[in-house]
Amino acid sequence: MKILALKPSLAEQVYEVIVAGICDGDLPAGAHLVQEQLAEQLGVSRQPIQQAMALLKADGMVEEIGRRGLCVAALDPALMRHHYDIRATLDGLAARLSALRLAAAPGLAKSFSDRAAQILEAGQAAVSSGEVAGQVRHDMALHTLIYETSGNPLLARTAEPHWRFLRRAMGEVLRRATLPREIWRQHAEIVEAIARGDAQGAEALMVHHDLSAAGTLQAALEAMEAASA
Questions:
Q1: Of 25, 48, 72, which residue constitutes the final position of a domain?
Q2: Of 102, 143, 153, 223, which one is least surrounded by beta carbons within 10 A?
């Protein structure tokens, strides 16, 4: 049998570039995506562009606009909330399992705390500098660390499609208004609870963190919709 290539395919690379453009605000809602132009800009044929567009449509990132082709889909606050409801359950489980695992392995707890401290510092620095992309990136890094620490390899894989959608919502709101310092204060509390092996407390803090963020994002997105109506 043929050995599989480990590097991402061209379609996956195109997909990631377009997702990054959408999440970072370079491709706002309604932006027309012309496949020929994208192929020229990215130096690829139309085939990986078409494959990437199929993935983006499946994720709800782009939508058909009749004969004009595809455009970046508008953010749906209700759909965002549904994603967060699922993510809160997954994240709460990850926090609980991580705390239980660290309670039984002090050496692992030290490693977790050190890595988490680096991410927390980087996230807070991104807040101070107003770097939206950095805030989102470090937020994802911290949650990914907790998924890894949980010992359940299915958690990150299951949460990943929700993160793709929520990464865009987070960036959209952070570019306008939210409480980023409160977000990172909550992150620090979650890390502390996990590190000391407080499974119940870590789970409760994580669920509260996710649902609180969902409420903030939903209110901000609805306000943005009302303002543009």
A1: 72
A2: 153
State pLDDT tens for residues 45-98: 999 999 999 988 887 889 988 777 899 988 888 888 899 999 999 999 999 999
Provide the number of structural domains found in the chain.
Answer: 2
pTM of the model: 0.81
Helix (H) or strand (E) holding 63: strand 62-64
Assigned token pair, 125? 């620095």
Pairing between β-strand 32-33 and β-strand 62-64 as defined by DSSP bridges: unpaired
CA neighbor of 166 nearest in space, from 134, 213, 205, 223: 213
Q: Which of 48, 72, 96 is the last residue of a domain?
A: 72
Give residue 42's domain range. Answer: 10-72
Among residues 161, 8, 2, 173, the alpha carbon closest in space to that of 75 is found at 173
Q: Does residue 84 sit in the same domain as residue 133? A: yes
Of 87, 86, 78, which is closest to residue 221 (Cα–Cα)? 78
Helices and strands: H and E segment counts in the chain: 9, 3
Specify the residue for token string 């994802």. 140
Residue 91 included in any domain: yes
Which of these, 183, 189, 213, lies nearest to 201 by C-alpha position? 189
